[in-house]
Structures are given as C-alpha cells and as structure tokens.
Amino acid sequence: MPYILNKTNGTIVATVQDASIDRTTDLQFLGRNYAGYGEIQNENFLKLLENFSNNTPPENPIDGQVWYNPSYKNLNVYDAMNWRSLPTIIIDSLDLSKNVVPVIGDLWYDIKNAQLKIWTGTEYGLIGPLSGSDAKASWRGDFEYDIRSPDIPVYNIKSILGVDNAVVAIVSNESYYMYKDYTESPVYPTYVAPAGGNPGFTKIVKGISLFGADPVTGSTRSAVTGLTTSSYFWGTAAESLNSLYATTSSYSAGIVCTTTNTNIAFSVPFVNTSTNLAYIDSGIKYNPSTKILTTVASSALYADLAERYEADANYELGTVLIIGGEKEVTVTTTFADTRVAGIVSKNPAYMMNSEAGTDETHPYIALKGRVPCKVTGQINKGDLIVTSSTPGYGCSSNYAMGGAIIGKAIGSQINGLGIVEVLVV
Fold this sequence. Notes:
32 strands, 5 domains, 10-stranded mixed sheet, single chain, mainly beta
C-alpha cells in the first residue's frame, strides 16, 4: 500500500510506492518495506540539520524550503519561484567585524548609539537614524513663496539647518522677495516679515545667502537706519565681497576696506581707481595692471624655495630626483649625476609653478634653502651631497664637480639609510 505525503496546507507532494524511493524533492522518501532504509533516512535528517548547505541551491526545492549558502554565509528561503536571502543582523554595542567576519548586506544594530548599519564590504555604513552633530546639521530641500506671485511656490531652495532648526544659509536658483513691501519706498524699501517669519531673509538672490546679510542689498554696511546686520556672503562669487558703501575702494572690483571708527586699522589692500594702485600703510602694494605685489619685507614659517615638476612616479618626501625619465624628473642610480634637479620638499616656504599639477605626480622640488634629504652611508656636517647609486638617495662626496652637487649636509649620520637636513645650493 503506497504512502501519500501531504504538505502542511494539505497539498499532496508525492505518492511513494512500496519498496521504492521517491526523489520528487531534495529529500528521499522511502516506501513501505524498503530494504536498507537506515542510511537514506539518516542522510535526510543530516540535510535538514545543515539546511542543505552547498554553494549551489537545491535542485528540487519546494515552497518554504531553507538553504544555507556557505559562499555568502547566509540563509535563503524558497518562495515557490525564487530563492530569497534572509538578512543576518547582529545586535550589540560593539563592532564585531574584527571577531565575526561579515559579508556584504549583513546588518548590525548598534544598541549603544541606537543606529542600524549595513556591511558594505569594508565597513559598516550607517542606515540611520542620524545622531549627534549629524542630526543637528543637514541639507533640506524646501520651498518659499515670491511675494510677487504668492500662489506659485519656489521649489529650488535649499536651507542649511543648524541647532534648533535655525536657518543659517539658503541656496537658490533665482532671485525673489519673500515678504511684502508695505512702504513701497523707491530707494530703500522696508520689507516687513509676517508673523513667525525670518527677517534675516526678506530677499533671496541667485546664489548663496548667509544669515546676517542686509535683507535688501546684502551689503556689509547698510544706509537704512536701524539695520546693523552685515553680509558675509551674498549672491554669486563675483558679488560676495562687494561693498556698496566703501569710501576708500571700488566695490565693483570685489575688494573692500571699510571702517566706521578712525581708530580701527584694516591690514587689507584696496584698489584706488584713480591711480590703479592698491596699497596700505604697512607697505603692501599691488598693481592690478601688472599683477605685481610689492612688499617692504616678508617672512615665512618654512625654510626652502621649491617648484613643481612632473615626475614619472609618486616619490616620498626627501627623495633626490634628476631631470630625465618619461616625464620631467625621475630617480637615478648614477653616482654624482650632473642631471640632478633637487630634493622633494615637505613644506616649501615659497611654492612656484603651483598650478602645474596638484597630485603626487607633481611634487615640489627644493631649489634653495634647507630641506630633509634621504641619504645613504656616512654623512658628516658640511659634506657635499650628490646622487648615489641607491635610487632616490644622496651620499657624501667632497670631490664632486659643481654641476653634480645638491647641497651641503647640516646634519650627520654614521652609516646606512637615513634622513639628514641639507642646505640646497
């Protein structure tokens, strides 16, 4: 007499004849009086215990079957059509990635910070919610109304929200007025904010408006009695430093120098439009026509003059380079190479050719001054430094010809590879 096997919902899965094996599913069902049933039956239990653990899914799954994929270390359930992964979630106050190897998609609920995170392959990325300073400052899309068209919202506004949701800046794609002009004055109109409004933003200009600007002009100084707010940034970059009331400079040039107190001095150069010369009493002079800045004296924190050159690789600070290679500079294995260019500088006091390139393939090379240098062998103070046979390193040679000399050692070392300060000559 055959066995009729039913699922939990009553659906018949298989009819197993006497003394036979049914392989309708990934388990083997045994018929009545089947000889040697013990091994097969125990293997069925083992498959259930390990959830059919295999890198490939079971061949004959049924709705609700569970499969463990050891490649991705996750459980999957069959929904009668597809295998769906079940997320793994760790609930702990510590990042357990150092102890438990996570896989992409694993979730971690950080109970210490009350945040849900997901493993990206290298770290746990935050899903949410934001906390601390991140929760107090963020970009938020918003809209306002132009008083000239009160029924049409302006959607291209973004506001930066600070502590207590105070608006500190607005970025707009167009200019408009937020509040009605009740006085309709032709010169200096007064904009009255409605109840609950923010009087710091009566007018929005195309570009960036920071809280504290004059609500009408955006100026650093207002001619309207009673208005003392000032503009830190208003509109486009070309307008950001303009002053409408700078008596000692041209506001159209974008450089301002104003004061309301004769006892206050500003060390900022300004443009004198009558002589086309910018100057201040401390001795700084700038001629816009020639773009030359002249000073009586200046000082620098660091100690070398350097210039950018294009290198054929990324070189460490202190590396000795020569003119040559596929680019402009490279290393050499030649002792006392006369093609020497200089030493890769750490902190140049004066940087030339600064726009040549900004990445590590355009290092600053010290041409004059004192700079750390990679050296090999015994170095004594005062020794002449030249290129060595070790690529990127200098060495001592007091008999080198002038064209091969990098500089003079300020420091010393007994032997081996090291770094000493060198006076580049």
